[in-house]
Amino acid sequence: MADLVTQEPRFAQFKLVLLGESAVGKSSIVHRFVTDSFDDLRESTIGAAFLTQTIQLDERTTIKFEIWDTAGQERYKSLAPMYYRNANCALVAYDITQESSLDRAKSWIQELQKQASADIVVALVGNKLDLEAERKVSTKEAKEYADELGLIFKEISAKTGEGIKDVFHSIASKLPVEEKLNSATKRRRNIDLNRPSTNNQESCSC
Amino acid sequence: MIGRRVLGQVPNEGELSPTASPNGAESLSCPICNENMINLGQLNQHLDDTHTNNDPSESVNIGPYLEKDLKNWFRTKVVDRANSLHPLISSKLNTMDVVDNMGYFTISDSATSSAPNSTTNSRISSPGLETSEISRSHWKKPKGNDFCHLKECKRRLNIKNGIVNCRKCGFLFCNEHTYYRIKVNQTLQYDPLGGQFVRCCITCFTNKPFFNNFEGFALDDTKTFQELREKRLESDRLKTIVLEKRLRKIFAFVYDRDNPSKVNNSEVTNYVKQIIHWQTDNELNNCPLCFKQFGRFLMRKHHCRLCGEIRCDDGCSLDIPMNYLKQLFDQSPETNEQYDQNHPTEDDTIVFDKVSLRICKLCKNRVFHRRLFTQNRSSSTGIDDLLSTIRLVNIYKEKIHQLLPGFEEDLQRLQTIDSASNSNQILPTKELEDDEQFLKMLVEKRYKIMSVFNKIDKIAKGLKLTIDQNDTLLSLKKPLAEGMTIDQLKIARSIYMQLASFLQENMLKLQKVPNLTNKPSTENEGLSKLEIREYRDKLMVLQEQHYLINSMIDDSKKKRKFDDLKILDENLADIETEIQTISRKLGDDSF
Ligand SMILES: Nc1nc2c(ncn2[C@@H]2O[C@H](COP(=O)(O)OP(=O)(O)OP(=O)(O)O)[C@@H](O)[C@H]2O)c(=O)[nH]1
Ligand SMILES: [Mg+2]
Ligand SMILES: [Zn+2]
Ligand SMILES: [Zn+2]
Ligand SMILES: [Zn+2]
Ligand SMILES: [Zn+2]
Ligand SMILES: [Zn+2]
């Protein structure tokens, strides 16, 4: 019986918010993740943009991210709480070539600790890894900070794509999938636990 | 050359028609993007639709784009084709197994039976390919002790080795040396287009004309196409001339008067309405060019002052400062010599700030694309790119200069409303509604200004990239990027610096929130001025986001992404709640 349950395909949806100083590459990270593309001349984000992407966490688990890509410009900082308030996970980005951006990232993390939900999964990522030659923030410094607070930590490059998938997978694997299973999946379990599992993944409720 | 390549066939002029649908062996494709075309008519349309510059930012880079496209085309069309042909040919020559459908390399009956490729077989062995109409009178009769006619073979001919007449030369060969097909006509001449397939010997096969020409023959449609294109261009030119005439009339209206500085936009619009057909705007729900939906708030309808048709303001039409337009127009290559005498005078500069003309992208392309393009092409140095960049930046800067003062005035008005509420006047509901409208308008303006700033910012980033790349090259003592000189790099640097400071200076203004009156606010239980300021700022940002989410919702509806719609709707509700909360906190100090 328990075996059957674990075999069943699972589908869960999570809200992810991107935070960080302007120009660290938040939008570039999202676009690399969602469309696997990169634009050297991306326009700075106005307000907050919305995108979605679905990943296969393991054979039976499909995870859909609702991504809110917030604008890093100071003027928009008041919008952020609306997007992190009930977010399940947050990706806080800094630019490894800009020291100030790590400070900004740290202050976002503090704000999340105070204001966001207690079980929010937070990842700290250092972007623009391709600009190793211009690095100003050492891996050690950022990693120690992240470890201390129990955050996911990765250095990535939206430009080359390095580490992008990893980060989202690490986030996904820390998310409470069981709690979040969408109602259709749960209902199916309640009604027909003995039914052999099918390979369908589109267990969304529509 | 624009043409179709027909492998192994001789061109037949009589059959050439621009609308003829090609058979599988032919391909007609756009020389720029390589997209397949059914006929020349489609190509003609395609060149207009796809490769006529639409985006103002594109005109800056037309050179590199075109070059890249051509390189791509060359690579896929010529190099890949050649690469793919050679192995194919060699494998065919080795095994005599045939995969192509071009009647070029062919196989014999017996090879057919063992060939795995059934589609090929059906074509090769389809009935009527080899008919009895072709004479057999030249066939050598087997005498009983025959040998393969091929000198290098001389194999004894029998049931096992085969006794086969070559249908062309008539000599007797073994099976192996008659595994070939060619097309001949009744008089046994090679005729790749009109002939029939017949079995032949290896000698006749390899003797056929162009045997070594792996590229086949080209049907050169260039001339036909030129004529077709010429007609289109001619009608384009006529349309362009009409538009140019209108533009000249408008310039005359604005500049040929005693005091051009007195002209204003609505006068110009009234004048334009007299000289062109002004499209009535009822029942038009979407922009005819980009199909974006018109709405009450930001996607407003605008008339192009040259064609009179309705367009959106989101990329399909642009409000261009009159002076700039005139300058650009006068700089046309045709009238270059007159440039000096038409150079803006002092008076023109007065017109500059106040009058602008909205032009849609189609009209812009008609009137200005050729000008900009010819300019770009005449000398292909980076300096032209820089000049186009400056030109573009100037358009955007002017736009900022147009929008920003109005915005600041509105902020001032906000202050007045403020003092009214501070002096404890109770505003009637009607006026409160007006205020609501007013705020929406303010948000709309802000958003527009922001978008223009973003465009400038993007250009600045582009420049920065070029500069950085070249600086790196310099530091490595390598030659600069193509078309770039040290002087141009300097110019690029100074444009960049200028842009950066322009952005800094002006975006600061945008960030400035209205100063509040000196009167301390008493009504809203102890909110400090600072708090009021902050809340108002928040309110503005929220209104902006409200607008953005609304447009995302429209977009999701159009794309039928209902999952997203749910999330966006929820967010919209969140934003509205937030707006209410803040408005309540602000009390009378809300807008
Ligand atoms: N070299 C390099 N450049 C990057 C990388 N990621 C982003 N960029 C560049 O950094 C700039 C800013 O990127 P965005 O994605 O717009 O930054 P953002 O964090 O979304 O900025 P806001 O929207 O203003 O908050 C762009 O010019 C990108 O091309 C990267 O991994 N490597
Ligand atoms: Mg962004
Ligand atoms: Zn094309
Ligand atoms: Zn022969
Ligand atoms: Zn032989
Ligand atoms: Zn449009
Ligand atoms: Zn027009």
Question: How would you describe the overall organization of this protein?
Answer:
Chain B: One of its GO terms (molecular function) is DNA binding. Chain B: Pfam families: FYVE, Rbsn. The complex is a heterodimer of chains A (206) and B (591). In chain A, 35% of the residues lie in helices and 24% in strands. By secondary structure, chain A is an alpha/beta fold. Chain A has one domain (2-178): P-loop containing nucleotide triphosphate hydrolases (Rossmann fold, 3-Layer(aba) Sandwich), CATH 3.40.50.300. A six-stranded mixed beta sheet of chain A has the order 2-3-1-4-5-6, sandwiched between helices. Chain A is globular. Chain B is mainly α and 591 residues long. Chain B folds into four domains: 2-206, Herpes Virus-1, CATH 3.30.40; 228-375, Herpes Virus-1; 380-514, Methane Monooxygenase Hydroxylase, Chain G, domain 1 (Up-down Bundle), CATH 1.20.58; 521-591. Chain B has 17 helices and ten strands. Chain B has helices spanning 40-51, 56-60, 62-95, 109-114, 118-124, 202-207, 222-255, 265-275, 322-330, 339-342, 346-354, 361-378, 382-422, 429-475, 486-511, 529-558, 562-586, and strands at 3-6, 164-165, 172-173, 180-184, 196-200, 217-220, 302-303, 310-311, 317-321, 356-360. In chain B, the strands form five sheets. Chain B has a two-stranded antiparallel ribbon with strand order 1-6. A two-stranded antiparallel sheet of chain B has the order 2-3. In chain B, strand 2 (164-165) and strand 3 (172-173) form a beta hairpin. Chain B starts with a strand and ends in a 5-residue tail after the last helix. The structure holds guanosine-5'-triphosphate, magnesium ion and zinc ion (ZN) (5 copies). Residues 30, 32-33, 35, 46, 50-51 of chain B line the site of one zinc ion.
